[in-house]
Design brief:
With 148 residues, the chain is α+β, with helices and mostly antiparallel strands. It contains 7 helices and 3 strands; from the N terminus they run ββαααααααβ. A hairpin with a 5-residue loop joins strand 1 and strand 2. The two termini are 22 Å apart.
């Protein structure tokens, strides 16, 4: 899985056909900084969009996890520290999923205490099940593919 054009890092796919039926696929991010500079836009978030977009998306996912903790009675017994660790892991994995880069961080994140808490305390949360899917499916690079 890679993200959508409307969600940071605003990826789109490029498919290049070669001789004898070969093709190469890779993703690219919109260059918001170049667009802002070209149009004279002074918005600091656009001029530093890769950093801004990454932080924004991470915050959205962090808050999504915190909302889940507050809505499910089975998760309300978690300490603030546990919630924070779990929300950070959720944000990190989900952000990497949107970039198609789970393979780059998968093992490191699965070793974190926050991930283990999702496994031990997260059920029946849909977010817990989603993290299981991300880590099970995230063992490969979804940003490039070459077929010869």
């Amino acid at each position: 899985m890679t993200g959508s054009l409307s969600t940071p890092p605003c990826l789109y796919g490029m498919l290049e056909y070669g001789p004898e039926g070969t093709f190469n696929y890779h993703t690219k991010s919109l260059d918001m900084k170049a667009w802002a500079e070209k149009t004279g836009n002074k918005d600091k978030n656009l001029l530093n969009f890769s950093n801004y977009g990454r932080k924004y998306l991470s915050k959205v996912f962090y808050n999504q996890a915190q909302d889940e903790f507050n809505s499910l009675s089975t998760l309300q017994g978690l300490t603030e520290s546990q919630r924070d660790m779990m929300a950070k892991v959720y944000a990190e994995l989900n952000s990497a999923c949107y970039e198609g880069k789970v393979a780059d961080i998968r093992e490191k994140v699965m070793a974190k205490k926050g991930y283990k808490l999702w496994q031990e305390e997260g059920y029946p949360s849909i977010l817990s099940q989603y993290l299981e899917w991300i880590t099970a499916d995230g063992g490969r690079d979804y940003n490039t593919l070459s077929v010869k």
